[in-house]
Amino acid sequence: MTRQAMLDLRQSATVQQLISDVGEDAFLMLSEALIAEIQNAQQSLPRYLADKDWHMLEVDAHAMKSAARSFGAEALADACLDLEKYGQSSGTDGDAKAILNTFDTAAVETLNAIKKL
Fold it and tell me: How far apart are CA 65 and CA 81, in angstroms?
């Protein structure tokens, strides 16, 4: 599956199942909550990296990973997993700048995909 196809959330089986499970109205509310969570993570995760707050980086990246997976946003979830692992390693496993750049790219792409739903 290409990266672009992963970001067509309208066709995602995960999104279709979520809509089926909760209904359209609740799905729209969950979509808005995910947008807010991504935007908050775009602010907090770089701050945790800068402050070397490994615990909060791990906790918030884990929460964002779970939220992203619930919508089938796998590129964002994978980027959050990398941040989570980086926090677990206390900043010794990987290149923080590259990991954060991957997260930023996936966050923007996911936000754009959600807005198309």
Answer: 6
Query: Rounded distance, CA 108 to CA 5, Å?
Result: 15
DSSP label at residue 94: S
| pLDDT per position as a tens digit, 84-106 | 999 999 999 889 999 999 999 99
CB 114 within 8 Å of CB 31: yes
Cβ–Cβ < 8 Å for 64, 37: yes
Contact 7/110 with Cβ under 8 angstroms? yes
Q: Rounded distance, CA 30 to CA 75, Å? A: 19
How far is Cα 27 from Cα 21, in angstroms, rounded to an integer? Answer: 9
Question: How distant, in Å, are the alpha carbons of 33, 46, 64, 104 from that of 97?
Answer: 27, 9, 18, 10
CA atoms of 94 and 116, how far apart (whole Å): 33
In the numeric block, which tokens belong to residue 84?
């989570």
pTM to 2 decimal places: 0.89
